[in-house]
Sequence to fold (207 residues):
Amino acid sequence: MNRSLRTIALCMAAIAMAAAPSLAAAQVFAPRAATNAFDLALTYSPERAKIVDTPCDCFWFHGGGADAAATLYRGLGPAASFTGQHASGLTGGASLDKIDYLFGPRYTLHTTGRSEIARYSTRLFVQALFGGVHGFNGTFPASSAAVSSANAFAYQLGGGLDLTLTHRWAIRAFEASFYHSGLPNSAANTQDDFRLATGVSYRIERR
Fold:
């Protein structure tokens, strides 16, 4: 019996010694919770839109954007987004450019885990942004005659997922949003589009 107990104790000690380096590494590289964090992202941002009064004469805007967000309290904080896009080859060979500037609240959920290969960390966020849009190099109806530029209210509702690479860098795997604007268009003067984004983000943390 004593020999059996000694054998078991030796086996347990050997297992503990073998696992110690892995446990220490996991402790070192485990992400730490940030009291405050600031994120800056640069993205490619396509947007699915359609011409009014048609079944689905749809087209794509293409462009890029930058957004910034601060996580201040339990995942909550302010966010801001700036996006510029261009569409060409519309009906009659027309084109259109637009930029928008949006602000609002964002909630970020930070999760961590471990696969068979390595530890991983993700940041899932949802947001509601409101602001304005400026359309130009296009044709917009007006009271007297058509004009080449116009301004309107806009908002964006959606969210996305960042896959962290290091404590600072992450890949924005996807972002998907419902985008509404009110540029004049000889119909309801509204646009309801589907916006996507993907890119990279950089985080600054303060503990």
User: Anything to note?
Assistant: The radius of gyration is 25 Å. Confidence is low (pLDDT under 50) at residues 11-33. Strands lie at 36-44, 47-50, 58-71, 76-87, 96-114, 119-136, 150-164, 169-181, 191-206. The chain has one helix and nine strands.
